[in-house]
Amino acid sequence: MNATNHQFRLAARPVGMPKRADWNYTEEPVREPADGELLVKVLYLSLDPAMRGWMNEGKSYIPPVGIGEVMRAGGAGRVVSSKHPGFVAGDYVIGHFGVQEYALSDGKDVAKVDPKVAPLPVYLGTLGMPGLTAYFGLLDIGKPNPGDTVVVSGAAGAVGTVVGQIAKLKGCRVVGIAGGADKCRYLVDELGFDAAIDYKSEDVKAALRTHCPKGVDVYFDNVGGDILDAVLTRLARGARIVICGAISQYNNTGPVKGPANYMSLLVNRASMTGMVVFDYAARYGEAAREMAGWMAAGKLKSREDIVEGLETFPDTLLKLFKGENTGKLVLKVAGE
Amino acid sequence: MNATNHQFRLAARPVGMPKRADWNYTEEPVREPADGELLVKVLYLSLDPAMRGWMNEGKSYIPPVGIGEVMRAGGAGRVVSSKHPGFVAGDYVIGHFGVQEYALSDGKDVAKVDPKVAPLPVYLGTLGMPGLTAYFGLLDIGKPNPGDTVVVSGAAGAVGTVVGQIAKLKGCRVVGIAGGADKCRYLVDELGFDAAIDYKSEDVKAALRTHCPKGVDVYFDNVGGDILDAVLTRLARGARIVICGAISQYNNTGPVKGPANYMSLLVNRASMTGMVVFDYAARYGEAAREMAGWMAAGKLKSREDIVEGLETFPDTLLKLFKGENTGKLVLKVAGE
After folding, report:
1. What is the pLDDT of residues B139-182, one digit of tens each?
2. Which of B261, B264, B273 sits opposite A265 (nearest CB)?
3. Å between B174 CA and nearest CA of chain A
4. What domains are there in chain A, each with its CATH number?
């Protein structure tokens, strides 16, 4: 092995939207795996809104990425060489490989996947962390009943598309909130949502009145901010709000906008509960099998928005915060 | 019966703190009860933070008081005459009698009480709605486990004092947040709280770090605003926040301050749930009996802050919002 590894390392903690200067693009020779290690050639990287939080100082559900460290990211790749008993060269794997071309790993949290069951990028989206987040957040926290009205924001994203489709499978009325007519059409025409609200061109509160005549039983929130506040005005009695993310607030330079209408929780005896998918690790397999079954049966559709080239990483990441992706945003690092 | 009934009626919807001009003080002759009615001489009125919300226009968990209507209020009184099969003259009763000297009632939601078991004002506080709110909010929503750290705001109020004492009975570490050294001393010295934080003179965040070294498992929130935001920074994993009130926000003329730190719910897999005591009506008796037992055993102390004179109502109500009461604020309308 005589290859060079290129990497994006965190150079500075961003203020607001991450800038090119917040990254260092570095290179170093690829080292052979030591005993117990495997070397992975990264083929695809998962770009997720949560990455913005990992760039901030301070306590969260996971430690921040240190200055100078390779940026944390989930990825899919192929094992190039292995001195780990669980892997051999040629295995396809997913894991937290970081924003780089090659990753050495001790095998912890690395899982083998079968590209004949689904293309590799799907293991970063619908059958990966975003899909599992949707599955456990909706079913375990949102607890939808047949006939419930389920609203999801960031509806055209990697998590939102799965939330809405699972809610439909469970017999719910599903309303998605997304930015732009194309995304809204996709949700209704392709994914079978009952309605979609374009927050960029519609009055969200008025549209919720129209599309949720019996109120909102489950709200799966990926965005926070004004949209969370709008949905709070439409809760049904006993509603469950799943707090999965707050992408509208991640690049704030001022304080986070707290939900001013939170007293609707009292009026409606409703709850707002945070979730982190890592807590469900013991059940990933069960959930992934069920979702793969739905995909095979054509009941769960997956869409990936694939951008090529590791070097585009700083700009491609921003597509998430500009709302430019539909489905799972994936960075293609190398050909298989 | 040849008496005159004096009443406070809502004259205007207040903007900010209710002013004297928002009330009309009216009088009318007392009418004899018709068939199925009883006439109650009001002896004590319950003054509650929730009354501020009832004065606002708009949908809530209960309809607003109409302009020109007698202000809604819970009260305790004596039946003067009755053509209702369930009551006789001389019965002591509690019910929603309104801010007036005499109330006619059809008996709905009127309950007989025994002044030999507890003085009448206690039936408006610890053995009344505030006590029941504390009981169900803490036990059903907060679900404290022995050893948990329970924090309550508005801790020296009618609800807060009961929340803290029940949490102690359940084996929890209890920290109260209240305004002023006297209230804080009362909580620790008289009621047995483990610690109290004076939000008027202390840095609440720093004090929570000191007094809740293992984080906050249950937060019973009566105040909202900055204190809710401070507690959010100290949640333990899986914390439960009970949203019972938001007295700091009730007289805002601008927008409500939403909890900017609400994403702590995600980081800590925590929940925030609203509650309204009326939902537990079927279990009032069971809870009141248990609390009366604790009182008789000296394990639950009740304190009332009694102000005399119906005519003081507009000013006395404001004591709640100025934080001037310790324990249950009661307006004494007439002698027994």
Report:
1. 999 999 999 999 999 999 999 999 999 999 999 999 999 999 99
2. B273
3. 23
4. 4-121+303-332 (3.90.180.10), 129-278 (3.40.50.720)
